[in-house]
Write a structure and sequence with these properties.
heterodimer, A: 2% strand, B: 194 residues, alpha+beta, three-stranded antiparallel beta sheet, 4 helices
Chain lengths: 82, 194
């Protein structure tokens, strides 16, 4: 193993490295949640096209607001953790 | 016994329409699974909500997690993510319940099923193709809350349609039989009714 690789691994598994990995994982999970919220928007759109009720516009609005909040959470976490 | 919030049975709703509804077609019944069937996931979600406070309270005592060594901001962020995941679980289960519906119109039986996040399956059978409809209620909860399955045998390509865990299954099966008889009378006149 080269010295660079060894130094990288030591740094990676040091307390600071593990902390960085943990923080990145949290932001990554928030990113996945944002993707999920976009899928929810798509899903609600498809569902409200299939079943048209009085609450359909409300559900669509909720799904879009929810996606916006999910994006807000990512920005908030980046600001809070790094 | 019925639950008033989030109705799961609509009798002739006039402000609800569905995809591919014909001009002279109207909805007789719109059905969802009985709200009581949501209890398992609601209970799981409530338990999951309680996990962080319990872990913060007894975790250090049991030696499971040593919270003081973790940075406070990471702890808060991880807790936030945990609650986001619970929210995702609740949303997905609610939408699954809300949009998986059965429709009995004056011409068709329609089953709209969202199998997962992005796939939709619509099954439609003409009332003329129905051969029999029966209802089944089994178990304490089902008897107590009056919900069960309605099984419809058809002569169409799909030979069997099941309305799972719908409220008042006897009433639903009876209404389907009435509609089918009406349809037969319209097509063949009174002589064709057996």
């Amino acid at each position: 193993m080269s010295l660079e690789k060894e130094a990288f691994l030591v740094a990676l598994f040091s307390p600071t490295g593990v902390l960085w990995i943990s923080k990145l994982s949290v932001v990554l999970l928030a990113g996945l949640y944002f993707i999920f919220s976009l899928i929810i928007v798509r899903q609600v759109k498809m569902m409200t096209e299939t079943l048209i009720t009085e609450v359909s516009p409300l559900l669509r609005a909720f799904s879009i607001v929810h996606a916006g909040l999910a994006l807000g959470v990512i920005i908030l976490l980046i600001g809070y953790l790094f | 016994m019925t639950l008033g919030f989030f109705p799961s049975i609509f009798d002739r709703p006039d402000k609800i329409r569905f995809l591919d509804q014909e001009d002279n077609e109207y909805i007789e019944l719109l059905l969802r699974r009985h709200p009581i069937t949501n209890i398992p996931w609601v209970f799981s979600a409530l338990l999951a909500i309680l996990v962080p406070p319990i872990l913060f309270r007894i975790g250090p005592t049991l030696g499971v997690v040593n919270f003081p060594t973790l940075p406070f901001n990471l702890l808060v962020a991880a807790t936030g993510i945990w609650y986001l995941l619970i929210l995702a679980y609740i949303l997905e289960n609610f939408l699954h319940w809300y949009f998986n519906i059965y429709i009995v119109s004056n011409e068709h039986l329609i089953e709209i099923r969202f199998a997962n996040l992005l796939s939709r399956n619509i099954t439609s059978v003409l009332l003329d193709d129905i051969q029999s409809s029966s209802s089944f209620i089994g178990g304490i909860f089902r008897s107590l809350f009056n919900y069960g399955d309605v099984i419809i045998e058809t002569a169409a390509e799909r030979q069997r349609i099941e309305f799972f865990s719908v409220p008042r299954p006897d009433f639903v099966a009876d209404r389907i039989r009435d509609l089918q008889e009406d349809q037969e009378n319209k097509i063949g006149g009174p002589d064709s009714v057996t």
